[in-house]
Write a structure and sequence with these properties.
By secondary structure, the chain is α/β, with parallel strands linked by helices. It contains five helices and five strands. Strands 3-4-5 form a three-stranded parallel β-sheet. Helix 3 links the parallel strand 3 and strand 4.
């Protein structure tokens, strides 16, 4: 949908197969976060140093700091899932640099079934 509306779509996944599927569905770029653990730096490179306007975050504590670094000042991070284990996260950066964080939250199936 985003591509159809003119957005440049950057997808991250641990699976090259899923990245290829995303590209077939219209994604502009795909980054494997297992083979490229500093994927936020690649996002910055792909956006000519600007960062993304909108990040959709599903990883939770394990990836939200990288999503913050990959999002431009004043950008939006929509949290739609929390799939990783809980840990302390420093979100001072988003407050200082103007990223807005909001969204719908879902818990890992392991936690939500308890």
């Amino acid at each position: 949908i985003a591509t159809a509306l003119g957005a440049t779509v950057i997808v991250t996944s641990s699976s090259d197969e899923k990245l290829e599927t995303a590209k077939k569905l219209g994604a502009t770029h795909g980054i494997n976060y297992r083979t490229n653990p500093s994927w936020e730096e690649e996002v910055i490179r792909l956006t000519n140093g600007k960062g993304v306007d909108h990040a959709v975050e599903i990883g939770g504590a394990q990836s939200i700091e990288k999503s913050v670094r990959a999002t431009k000042q004043g950008g939006l991070i929509s949290v739609v899932g929390i799939l990783s284990e809980d840990r302390a996260v420093n979100l001072v950066g988003p407050i200082l640099f103007g990223a807005k964080i909001g969204g719908l939250y879902s818990l890992p199936s392991k936690l939500s079934s308890d």
